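ok here's alpha-L-fucosidase:
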Amino acid sequence: MPEQRGISRRGALTAAGAAAGAAMLGFAAPAARAADLGRPAATPWFPSAKFGIFIHWGVYSALAWGDAKHAAEWYLYAMNVTDPARGTGTREHHLRTYGPEVNYDDFIPRFTARRYDPRAWVRLFEQAGARYFVLTSKHHDGFQLFDNPASDRNSVRLGPRRDLVGELFHAARHSELKRGLYHSLGEFYSPALGTPPRNPYTGVEIPYTGFRPVTDYVRQYEHVHLKTLIDRYDPDVLWADGQGYHEFGGGSIFRPKVWDWHSDEILAYYYRNAADRPRPKSVVANDRFEYAHPDYVTVEGDNKTYVLRPDPWEACLNIGKSWGYNENEDPAKIKSAARLVQLLAEVVSKNGNMLLNIGPREDGTIPDWMSSRLLEVGRWLRINGRAIYGSAPWRRAMDGALCYTRTRDAFHLIPLHWPGVKLAVPGDVPITGHARVRLLGGHSRPLPWTRTADGIVIDLPARRTDGFTEEFPAVLSVSAW
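and the structure:
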């Protein structure tokens, strides 16, 4: 999922705190407009949501193996990489474990979803404090988790024989969670793209299971998929990926070099669908559709230097290395719950949302090391969420390991680690003579603070009283400033 550059000026910071934060930054909150592409008048929920769950689930979950160079969901492509410099670990693993005659599609029956409990997923997402989720309806291997008239390569016709998208959306229908769908526009290999799959070891062309021949990949296949998702499931988010031309050692993928996804057409359909109803709903699409006016920018991974942006954006990141379930996950690459909360605080202080990924097993169960981290994030948010949800940035996001957010009635200081018995903050932070500073999750009495020649010093309790270790961020809420 290569990162896209550019930034939208179309998202509206609709919450009062968000508008105030934008003003402090010197940016005017852009007015909502409905003229272009039939867009609804506003997208009020996305800028305030702040935290969502990404779900990578598919046939690759049955193979459940990635290496240092390739994540598990890229297994089909990694099988075809022959250059050691590009990483041949997956190719060698497959040959050693399954042999040269076993193809990726032979694992479709092993993707069973036999223990898939979408209601349990929804409860977990709610307990994690998420405000939305985004499920992979089709990843780069071309396998769809929903039935559609363009292809039989899907979970209703093959494998689980179930509408996996529909079941999760149905389970969440009475939840406050917004529901989103990821869709890979292109695919690793497809006869319709001029890249039919081949056996990686013999080079012989092999069937693309469930494929129906088309002459126009975009309008007869990709757009049919997207219209089916829009009409049947009414998603609040459309999250595109797999849109560019790439060659990483296993052949060219996703699309030819010269290509037009005609995304303005399909997104006009999406926005009209949301607007043309008695009670219009707010929907958003990310920036990877290669269309005229993205609703928000996506930044992939936590190894980027996040920057404060005037419009809503989203950091999509993983708990480990792989996005799909990986039995070969390196324990050293798995982030702690404290690290995830630190990343959430940093992203939110810079006006972003964090979309945190999980990769269920092929049977639909979520590994304990993923769910336990989600629950810890949720426990932290239950105490400190008032500094996260609906917040807006200050004129700068951070000083060192100290983050700032603003809401309607408070200014929030978020040290990424427990600072000890005293917290020193810069003198221009808006703490005035009448300000009251309270530690969320601590005692209710205001904390003493003094202004010095070097700034402001806030006295803290000798130890934390919120039940978290010192690695977790704390939140100090400043009111009457």
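+1. Residues 135 and 290 are 20 Å apart (CA to CA).
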